[in-house]
Amino acid sequence: MKMKRGEVIVLLVLAVGSVLAYLGKINGWHSGFMFPKWLSITIVSLTFLSMVWMLVRTIQGKLVERRIVFLYVGIAVALPLLMELPQKIIVSDIVRAVYTELEALQPGSKVLVSFDYDPASAPELQPMAEAFIAECFERDLTVIMMGLWPQGPQQAAMAVDSAMKRMGYTDQDKVYGVDYVNLGYQAGNEFVIQRMGSSFQSMFKTDFLGTPYEDIPLVKNVKNFSNINFSFNLSSGFPGTVEWVQVAVDRYGLRMGAGNTAVQAPTIYPYVRSKQVLGLLGGMNGGAEFETVTGLPGKAIGFMLPQSFAHLIVIGFIIIGNVAFFREGRKSRLKG
Amino acid sequence: MCSLALVVLIFILTIGNALAQEEVLPPDSTAVVEEAAYAQPVLNLQAEDKPNDAGGAVRVSWDVSTDDDGDGGIIGYTIYRGTAAAGPYEVVGQVPSGKSDFDDGNTADSLTYYYKVIAMNDALFSAGVTEVEMALATTAGPVQSSEQWFDFRRINVFAGTLLLSFLIIFMISRAKAGKKLFIRKIAGMEAVDEAVGRATEMGKKIFYVPGINDMDNVQTIASMTILGRVAELAGQYDTWLEVPVCRSLVMVTAKEVVKEAYTKVGRPDSFQENQVHYLTDDQFGYAAAIDGMVVREKPATIFYMGAFFAESLILAETGNATGAIQIAGTAMPSQLPFFVASCDYTLIGEELFAASAYLSREPKLLGSLKGQDMGKAIILVSMVVGIILETFGIWEFSQLFSVIE
Amino acid sequence: MRREIPLLITAIAGVVFVVQYFIPHSPFNHLDGWFSDWFSIVQACAIVLGSLNLLMISSQKIARKKEGWGYAVVIIVSFFLITIIGFAGGEEFRDVGTGFDWLYNYTYVPLSSTMYAILAFFVASASYRAFRARNAEATLLLLAAFFVMLGRVPIGDLLTMWMPEGFRMSNLATWIMDFPQTAGQRAIMIGIALGLVSTSLRVILGIERSHLGGE
User: Fold this and answer.
1) C208, B158: Cβ pair inside 8 Å?
2) Which CATH number fits domain A93-297: 3.80.30, 1.10.10, 2.60.120, 3.40.50?
């Protein structure tokens, strides 16, 4: 637990910075604040030059420490949030497929959205959840939400709140219980999905707010998956998309799309190729592409600039690491 | 002559014009309304008990209306249901144009039902379906839903399960009969002894992390098997083994496994209750707690065996930074690259399940591995055959592996 | 009997779960529901065991002033704080504006997000260390990582705008994800599925019993 003076100073600076950022947020000091273009370009240029300098030092035999890698990743994800640089997002077929599915639904169709994640992965999944709900509302589709993770329904409530604000809807425009409903959390993992195959009501006696299932107009006639026109699963692990595919899609023929964290997404690709998952939003990039195709820009597009920079920084360090490897042979090892 | 010709011409033109006008004359307005409100009905309407289900569902099918030609004449079909042929009927569902079936999943097995399907165009949709139209529509039924004794859509899965089970049991019986079986070296398993020995030499702890899933996951069961072996070695060398767990049931099981292992190597007194302890069910709370313990206590060896998700890299990188020797094993494909990057040895997928056979060398367990390999060989051959047949446009073979409708 | 009863329960539950997949008729279609209900009940009761164990170990640490005992104090205080505030909120404890809601939004959410965000830093350091062109296979891996990382962000296409459509970064990344990546995933998944079947069969038949504390 012994700390160097430098580390204490860095920690203090970070703590003071966080407090100031929080105070700024609640008081609106920096709302809409963005770096001027010349400053953005200067920061990018300096970062690039410093990476080149690190490369030169590596060639000279001085290896980069782990903490330097961390510092650069921190800069790459934080500073671009305040930059305004043009970026063009190209929508991939796998994302467009989800949009096409929604496009084919008639107004009033029932869409089941399962929120199988917790706040930890919310930064990555929440933007796509908000965009999906907003698009459903835009198309007058009715939305039934639920969660196989205890914190899922909380995330669902937050996503609806945000989507309503984004679309400028009031509680009269989209009525709870008629246009959307939050059925809440049910323990039991994939068994919940299996039993929903015969009866939703057996798993959700009441909704998130405690209203009895039979008193909710939207789901009064929803018995099982045969009454659902499309389903979308937001997942960051177990239980998640794989379980929905294995039970709801395989056994009950549910039409399903999915939104997954970038780490999980590669596991879902085989199911997309076999058409068990009709479309996939993978990570922040998937969210940004969905926002682009729906024409409803949100948080994900904003986060693509930091992601671009972070990827470039990681690629930069991979190049530096390889230079070190070829210089030092197999002995090279990350210090720190 | 000229004037006569002119008169004849005018006469001909007038008659011609009048005839042409008669040809394009619109029908009277009443006829227009009736024509618009009328949509050609569906044909060949049928209702049958939905096959391969647990009851409670009827499948209604029909041939689409001749007006349903994709130009928007028909906007959809409304499905009505009644418990008597004469009615009354209630709406049970709507499907878009072009669709020719509907599953009514809301039936009671004890009742008899009748169905009608009305093709809807814009005029009908806004005016509403009248009793006359309902009376004119054809009726399907009577039909009753019922439970089935076998789901024939899964007959291929059933055959596959039987075949694989047979192969595994057959190879187990051969192994029991004394047939010698070869098992390839698994580097990660070979390193277990070395890793425990290293901790003993350094006088430091061993951490065993059994993943974040409960005992209902086969990966956790496989992990408990490996824990038994690690605990035996730790007991022999008298090295402190700590098992922080994420699920209460895993804690109970792990305690039992470690206790038994210590007893087996003749050191029951060395076991302490707090060696296996619960932290939290929360994924990242668990990762944070283990990271803290690793940074503070700097164990010599860390095992990660079981089901892991996004926390895998957070755990493994922290362990790597402290210089611990790390052995991981998981069947989560998305986490394997992280473990490979950060750990010294990684058991990839099926190697985790093979661990108990590998460690115990018991013929019965080795036999099951052999049966599993034979299953894999059959799948590989099927894949090659399928690729060749598909290349030549023969699809029937590959369809054997999809859901049979 | 200490071994036989768990083995019997395992065998019955295992067979029931296999059978109900093929037979939709009652009572088989309800059996898995009953078993899963029982599992949920046992699991819920076991949470008490876990919580007690956590409190006991943490209390011991504080009592013996073991290294890092301050963290044990944080555990105990947090445990009681969130439990008491949760119960004090009554049935509406999850509603907006309650104490529990405040704790959830302003402590649990940011702490969890922070832990997840650390992943970005560790991915960078692990990539820096692991992606090395040691041999031909590693070089291929390195190139694939390079294309996917650039192809997944808008800047990748910006850098390759001048190239023909099919060779732009996003297309290359999509190709890698759709074909080589999916093929690899499938291979691993098939192996894992067979391993799962084999292990499950061993457990159901009682051949594998080391997880019960003995061979």
Assistant:
1) no
2) 3.40.50
